[in-house]
């Protein structure tokens, strides 16, 4: 559940909700149909989206070992799924706690940052084609959070120097 809504419900245990609290709940409820639609689109088109990204990635980086490309693609698939769930829940902490805590370490260990940089660019391009502008606006912050964390991790900064 959306953490702010959960907090509102917890704090209002023995009272009626305040107008501003109802506003937060109303805003989330009103955005839910669009969030559900974006989630369904991602779920239903995931294979198509990721296959196109995989094909482009392989063409862009022909000298990279296949196992590295596959590892990065699997991570991107998880990034997409966790971002979609975070968007549906409207909860950035969900992505942080469930994905980022281990993904940045995995990427650093396997040294796939260069692949991931290209992959994120291709994924963003493909998502822009597959989703509506409104859906991109809902999903974008979650994907951006993951991409920023991965591309600005301390290991990457050290590698760039």
Structure description:
By secondary structure, the chain is mainly alpha-helical. The protein has a single domain (32-160), classed as Orthogonal Bundle (Globin-like), CATH 1.10.490.20. 86% of the residues lie in helices and 0% in strands. The protein is built from 7 helices and no strands. α2 packs across α6. It is elongated, with a radius of gyration of 18 Å. Mean pLDDT is 87; it is low at 155-161. InterPro entries: Globin-like_sf, Phycobilisome_asu/bsu, Phycobilisome_asu/bsu_sf.
Task: Please tag this protein with its features.
161 residues, mainly alpha, Globin-like, 86% helix, disordered C terminus
CATH class: Mainly Alpha
CATH structural architecture: Orthogonal Bundle
> What general outline do the C-alpha atoms trace?
elongated
Distance between the termini: 41 Å
Per the CATH scheme, the topology name is Globin-like
Give the biggest sheet. none
Give a count of the beta strands, DSSP E runs of length 2 or more: 0
Percent of sequence in beta strands: under 5%
Structural domain tally: 1
CATH superfamily membership: Phycocyanins
- Classification by helices and strands: mainly alpha
Computed CA radius of gyration, to the nearest angstrom:
18 Å
- The total of helices stands at 7
Given as residue ranges, the uncertain stretches (5+ residues, pLDDT < 50) are 155-161
What is the string of helix and strand elements?
Answer: HHHHHHH
Overall pLDDT level: 87
Give the fraction of residues assigned to helices: over 70%
């Amino acid at each position: 559940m959306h953490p702010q809504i959960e907090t509102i419900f917890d704090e209002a245990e023995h009272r009626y909700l305040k107008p501003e609290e109802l506003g937060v709940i109303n805003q989330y409820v009103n955005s839910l149909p669009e969030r559900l639609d974006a989630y369904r689109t991602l779920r239903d088109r995931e294979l198509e989206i990721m296959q196109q990204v995989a094909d482009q990635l392989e063409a862009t980086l022909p000298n990279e070992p296949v196992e590295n490309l596959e590892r990065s693609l699997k991570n991107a698939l998880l990034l997409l799924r966790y971002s979609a769930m975070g968007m549906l829940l409207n909860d950035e902490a969900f992505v942080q706690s469930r994905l980022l805590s281990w993904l940045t370490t995995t990427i650093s260990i396997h040294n796939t940052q260069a692949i991931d940089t290209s992959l994120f660019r291709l994924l963003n391009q493909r998502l822009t084609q597959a989703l509506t502008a409104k859906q991109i606006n809902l999903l974008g912050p979650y994907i951006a959070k993951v991409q920023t964390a991965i591309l600005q991790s301390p290991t990457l900064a050290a590698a760039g120097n």
